[in-house]
């Protein structure tokens, strides 16, 4: 009887560990709190580029963001830095002579 009780308790503990690990894997990390400067820049860019005024910048609106504004947002930490391959590629081809 004791062996069965110990086996059942072991299975319950193992199940609890597995369920806890699955819950930890599915939870999202907490968002970072923006600084006052980041919030101000985000509001400025939203007002400038949100043409349909829905409060979000979609793909078409994102494509219209100027390089200078992208650089500002990257420096402020609102955008990820471009990948090395993207930064190394020239924006326009050199004219052939």
Explain what the structure shows.
The protein has 97 residues and is mostly helical. The protein contains five helices and no strands. Helix 2 runs antiparallel to helix 4. The longest helix is centred in the first third of the chain and has 25 residues, at 2-26. The termini are far apart.
* String of helices and strands: HHHHH
Q: So how many helices?
A: 5
Strand content: under 5%
Largest pleated sheet: none
Low-confidence stretches: none
Separation, N- and C-terminal Cα atoms = 92 Å
Structural class, judged by helices and strands? mainly alpha
Question: Count the strands?
Answer: 0
Helix content: 55-70%
Shape: rod-shaped
- Radius of gyration, whole Å: 25 Å
* Overall pLDDT confidence: 82
Give a nutshell description of this structure.
The protein is mainly α and 97 residues long. The protein has helices spanning 2-26, 36-49, 59-63, 67-76, 84-88.
List keywords for this structure.
97 residues; mainly alpha; rod-shaped
Topology of this protein?
Elements: H1 2-26, H2 36-49, H3 59-63, H4 67-76, H5 84-88
């Amino acid at each position: 009887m004791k062996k069965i009780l110990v086996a059942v308790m072991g299975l319950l503990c193992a199940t609890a560990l597995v369920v806890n690990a699955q819950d930890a894997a599915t939870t999202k990390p907490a968002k970072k709190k923006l600084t006052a400067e980041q919030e101000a820049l985000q509001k400025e860019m939203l007002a400038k580029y949100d043409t349909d005024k829905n409060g979000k910048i979609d793909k078409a609106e994102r494509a219209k963001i100027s390089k200078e504004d992208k650089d500002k947002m990257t420096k402020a930490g609102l955008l990820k830095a471009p990948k090395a391959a993207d930064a190394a590629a020239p924006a326009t081809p050199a004219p052939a002579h």
